[in-house]
């Protein structure tokens, strides 16, 4: 009897210990990644790194300036496609959810959420790159928007579902047309949630590499030019465009120490930015949604 | 005027929906169209043939299918128990405030992009494995281990899918009725026994679903795998003598092959078409995995369970 008691107590402690140990093992890579990013990335940090484009090997002063701008442009472009579309999808999914085709629609959104990004990449390649025989910023943005779309749709849907039905009923009872109820009342009520979803989605696609390898490709030029005498800058959207993740990949796989250093610094910038967005949205918008 | 706005809105909303459905079909359709040259040449022997020879234009995808399955399996074997334990720890053993902080840290792991895992894998994990295993493997099997291998790809994948599985299982554990655990405690069981019977015992099915969702993510993961797997397009020689060797040899997965060879394949060639066929295979496999997983662990079920508890 006594042995059994000790056995059970031991098992209890072992279970607790194992769980804690498991969590430590899970969090260890996060610590290690952050440590190495700082250790190997910080030495390469300089203002020049942020504002210059890649130079040929051996020429000092390579940077990620054009890649940062390219990433920003591509992510913005894909947001222009995916955000309105995704919000509408969210409205359908939550407001017309009893219809049969909407049930099927939800299924396709779910499947799209788990689509491997490389598959999206080769789809964009086949549709937007192969026919024109040219890598372009457009095709990269299209690929990223396919990845962003389901994220926006699902957050909007969940936000709308969480709203009390009375809000909608009251608005409709006042004789407000459906579209105004949806846009001016329901969507406005869940704006913090949708914004948080959009920001998290943007942070996710900003780090995507695989679909951009053969759509946006890369370039050592700047995506925006300001020529002498012209009033507006010219955007090179039908040209290959450099993005931060692809630039990191190229620096990393170059095999030269000088460029590997650039890869680590670029990676540090990318991760720092993504974590900042994550932490900011999760603290700020969550509070906004609750109170 | 009012009617018109209403109608326009209805049309707009429906179009958004139909376009979305069309998009998914278009993706499958385009991949199928592009892979037809390869399909008509190799038929379905493509997926059981292991020769990948761009020079003579003979293509078969078995190496990559096996690579994808092997790396994903390794990832699951490591990730599932670890995720389970950490989800238990976060939900059962820590106070609520700390619990949400820990969960947030785990979710940060999910936010780290694939390319960063690749970078870390190449310059931290691979050298670590090489330094620790090279001597051993050389002594036991007399073969050279370079660090880039199926094993390192599996390890990286494990790290990448842990946050997915952990957050899903955490939700599950939070949604399990407290009453079972309380009953077990009231009968004089220890905390671990209460968790064993009252939490784990009733959520096996959903755990299976969560693991499948993790598997779905592992199957399609590209960049990190490309960087650490070594990109070898054939099985290591004499595999029959030491099947164990496969783990420590460079290989390729379906996704990493596409990322690697896209630049080299010429437009309109059988080579490119074969890559599309691999992509189509990847699409089908991941869609099927995810469809099964979602059927098992639908979020709605969790919500329903929660509501039933409150009532």
| Beta-strand content bin of chain A | under 5%
Oligomer: heterodimer
The total strand number of chain B stands at 2
Per DSSP E runs of 2 or more residues, the count of β-strands of chain A stands at: 2
Strand fraction of chain B equals under 5%
Alpha plus pi helix count of chain A: 12
**What is the makeup of the main sheet of chain A?**
2 strands, antiparallel
Radius of gyration of chain A: 24 Å
Characterize the structure shown.
The complex is a heterodimer of chains A (291) and B (311). With 291 residues, chain A is mainly alpha-helical. Chain A has 12 helices and 2 strands; from the N terminus they run ααααααααααββαα. In chain A, strands 1-2 form a two-stranded antiparallel sheet. In chain A, a hairpin with an 8-residue loop joins strand 1 and strand 2. In chain A, helix 3 runs parallel beside helix 6 and helix 5 (117-129) crosses helix 6. The longest helix of chain A is centred in the first third of the chain and has 40 residues, at 2-41. The N and C termini of chain A lie far apart (55 Å). With 311 residues, chain B is mainly alpha-helical. Chain B has 13 helices and 2 strands; from the N terminus they run H-H-E-E-H-H-H-H-H-H-H-H-H-H-H. Chain B has a two-stranded antiparallel ribbon. The relative contact order of chain B is 0.14. The mean pLDDT of chain B is 87. Chains A and B meet through helix 1, helix 3, helix 4, helix 5 and helix 6 of A and helix 1, helix 3, helix 4, helix 5 and helix 6 of B.
């Amino acid at each position: 009897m006594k042995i059994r008691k000790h056995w059970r107590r031991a098992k209890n402690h072992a279970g607790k210990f194992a769980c804690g140990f498991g969590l430590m093992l899970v969090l260890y890579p996060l610590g290690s990644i952050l440590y190495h990013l700082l250790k190997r990335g910080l030495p390469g940090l300089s203002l020049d790194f942020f504002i210059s484009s890649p130079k040929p090997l051996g020429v000092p002063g390579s940077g990620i300036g054009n890649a940062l701008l390219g990433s920003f442009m591509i992510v913005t472009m894909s947001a222009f496609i995916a955000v309105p579309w995704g919000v509408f999808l969210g409205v359908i999914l939550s407001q017309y959810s009893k219809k049969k085709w909407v049930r099927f629609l939800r299924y396709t959104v779910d499947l799209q959420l788990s689509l491997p990004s490389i598959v999206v990449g080769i789809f964009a390649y086949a549709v937007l790159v192969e026919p024109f025989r040219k890598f372009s910023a457009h095709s990269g943005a299209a690929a990223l928007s396919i990845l962003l779309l389901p994220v926006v749709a699902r957050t909007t849907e969940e936000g709308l579902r969480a709203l009390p039905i009375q809000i909608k009923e009251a608005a409709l009872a006042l004789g407000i047309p459906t579209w105004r109820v949806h846009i001016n009342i329901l969507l406005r009520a869940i704006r913090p949630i949708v914004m948080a979803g959009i920001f998290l989605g943007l942070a996710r696609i900003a780090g995507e590499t695989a679909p951009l390898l053969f759509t946006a490709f890369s370039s050592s030029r700047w995506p925006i030019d300001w020529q002498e005498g012209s009033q507006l800058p010219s955007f090179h959207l039908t040209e290959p465009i450099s993005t931060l993740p692809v630039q990191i990949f190229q620096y990393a796989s170059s095999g030269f120490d000088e460029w590997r250093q650039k890869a680590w610094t670029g990676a540090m910038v990318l991760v720092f930015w993504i974590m900042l967005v994550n932490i900011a949205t999760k603290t700020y918008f969550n509070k906004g949604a609750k109170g | 005027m009012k009617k018109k706005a209403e109608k326009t809105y209805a049309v707009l909303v429906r179009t958004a929906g139909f376009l979305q459905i069309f998009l998914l079909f278009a993706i499958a359709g385009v991949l199928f169209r592009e892979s037809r040259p390869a399909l008509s040449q190799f038929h379905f022997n493509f997926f059981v043939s292991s020769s990948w020879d761009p020079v003579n234009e003979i293509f078969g995808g078995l190496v990559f299918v096996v690579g994808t399955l092997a790396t994903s399996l390794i990832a699951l074997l490591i990730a599932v128990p670890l995720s389970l334990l950490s989800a238990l720890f976060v939900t059962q053993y820590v106070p609520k405030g700390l619990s949400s902080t820990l969960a947030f840290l785990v979710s940060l792991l999910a936010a780290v992009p694939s390319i960063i895992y690749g970078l870390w894998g190449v310059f931290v994990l691979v050298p670590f494995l090489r330094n620790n295993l090279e001597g051993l493997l050389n002594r036991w099997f007399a073969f050279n281990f370079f660090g880039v291998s199926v094993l390192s790809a599996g390890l990286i994948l494990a790290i990448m899918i842990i946050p997915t599985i952990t957050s899903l299982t955490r939700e599950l554990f939070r949604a399990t009725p407290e009453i079972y655990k309380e009953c077990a405690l009231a009968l004089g069981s220890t905390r671990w026994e209460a968790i064993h019977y009252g939490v784990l015992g009733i959520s096996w099915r959903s755990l299976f679903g969560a693991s499948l969702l993790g598997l779905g993510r592992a199957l399609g993961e590209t960049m990190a795998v490309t960087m650490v797997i070594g990109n070898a397009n054939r099985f290591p020689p004499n595999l029959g003598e030491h099947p164990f060797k496969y783990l420590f040899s460079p290989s390729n997965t379906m996704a990493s092959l596409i990322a690697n060879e896209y630049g080299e394949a010429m437009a309109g060639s059988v080579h490119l078409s074969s890559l599309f066929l691999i992509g189509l295979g990847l699409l089908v496999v991941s869609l099927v995995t995810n469809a099964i997983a979602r059927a098992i662990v639908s979020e709605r079920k969790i919500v329903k369970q929660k509501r039933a508890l409150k009532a």
